[in-house]
Amino acid sequence: MAFLQLEQLTKTFPGCNAVDHLDLNVDKGEFIVLLGPSGCGKTTTLRILAGLEIQTSGRVVLDDKDISDVPPERRDIAMVFQNLALYPHMSVYENIAFYLKNIRTGKAEIDQRVRQAAHRVEIGDLLERKPNQLSGGQRQRVALARALVRSPKLFLLDEPLAALDAKLRASMRSEFKLLHRSLNEQDSCAGTFIYVTHDQIEALTLGTRVAVIHQGKVVQFSPPKELYQKPHNRFVASFVGSPEMNMITGDLEMRGDAVSFLFDGLRMPLQARGVQALGRLHQPVAPVVLGVRPESVCLSTPAAEGAIPFEILTIEPFGQTNFIRLRASNHVSISSLVSPDLSYTEGEVVGVSFNPDAVHFFDTQVGNNILL
Ligand SMILES: Nc1ncnc2c1ncn2[C@@H]1O[C@H](COP(=O)(O)OP(=O)(O)O)[C@@H](O)[C@H]1O
Ligand SMILES: [Mg+2]
Question: Whose CA is nearest to atom 25 of ligand 1?
Answer without folding.
Answer: 39
